[in-house]
């Protein structure tokens, strides 16, 4: 709490020496209607969201094709291809998970694709009975998507060869059928969300007013929610025991069974957050109107946006120093994970309190963390 207070006071003091409080209020009121919020929405939608969805769809289709080949012929080459495509697709997923608006929110896209940890008992029960509905919005969230595949591709046996033998056993054909069913569901729900983004593009970018239901306000809230919950809490806080009386929960790390990619996924997620804030295009280093430029415009200074970017950079350095396997990292030294959480929390304060205050955007979700 002391750290948060000091950070807040430092930011306020810096802003106040840049311009007086009365000037800041007048500036905010006079410029609020002049910033081209639609240009920001166009840049984010056309150069970040839609290209990321195109890439994800392509990766997911390639993954689906690799699963089909493995279902036809269970050999080492096909198994390794499935595993590799799962990793590549999961990495791109980190760039679209934050965009939980429109159809994505309606069909529970995020929950169906990446609710972790997966429930092994639920997966095993689904396979044993083969009575499940992955389409419904129920407790099958913990038995599908990337986390369920993490268990089915990496958690059934000790090594690759043993996993292959497991799937070559005719008694285990239900497991293979379940893999096919999960991937098919992922393809279907992704197509629904992707097509909705394309169909809703014009309406979405034209909703540029500053209101609780306008596109930019919803998108900004979802961005901060993802940064706070999806990145800070899910990837670091919960596994490191921040919310459980310091009792670490290594099993809660993302990609628990494939122990080598948790750090990779976290870095991809932070990169996605960084690029969104700066308005950097998904496919290049070019950039356009963004939350960063919006903040700079509203305050006539880059002080706040620079602080946000510094927190991103500092968090990246801390994550890069972690073990590739977050479960091993937690068991060896969970305090390094907590340090990343604390650094990300500094970013949460800047985004959720200071940035939203400057932009006159209200928080639209409830924080139940007690942090």
Give a quick rundown of the structure.
By secondary structure, the chain is mainly α.
Tell me what you see in this structure.
By secondary structure, this protein is mainly alpha-helical. The chain is 69% helix and 0% strand. The chain is built from 16 helices and no strands. The protein has helices at 2-18, 21-31, 37-72, 76-93, 103-106, 109-114, 120-129, 145-154, 160-168, 173-206, 215-237, 262-278, 291-299, 303-320, 326-333, 335-359. Helix 8 packs antiparallel against helix 10 and helix 12 (262-278) runs antiparallel to helix 14 (303-320). The longest helix is centred in the N-terminal third of the chain and has 36 residues, at 37-72. Residues 1-32 have low confidence and may be disordered.
Structural key phrases:
371 residues, mainly alpha, 16 helices, 69% helix, disordered N terminus
SSE blueprint:
Blueprint lengths: L1 H17 L2 H11 L5 H36 L3 H18 L9 H4 L2 H6 L5 H10 L15 H10 L5 H9 L4 H34 L8 H23 L24 H17 L12 H9 L3 H18 L5 H8 L1 H25 L12
Helix pairs in contact: 1-16, 3-4, 3-10, 4-8, 8-10, 11-12, 11-16, 12-14, 14-16
Instruction: Give the overall average pLDDT.
Output: 91
The total of helices stands at 16
Strand percentage: under 5%
Order of helices and strands: HHHHHHHHHHHHHHHH
Largest sheet: none
- Share of helix, binned: 55-70%
- As residue ranges, the low-confidence spans are 1-32
Structural class from helices and strands? mainly alpha
Report the radius of gyration as a whole number of Å. 22 Å
The total beta strand count reads 0
Approximate shape: globular
Q: What separation lies between the terminal Cα atoms?
A: 8 Å
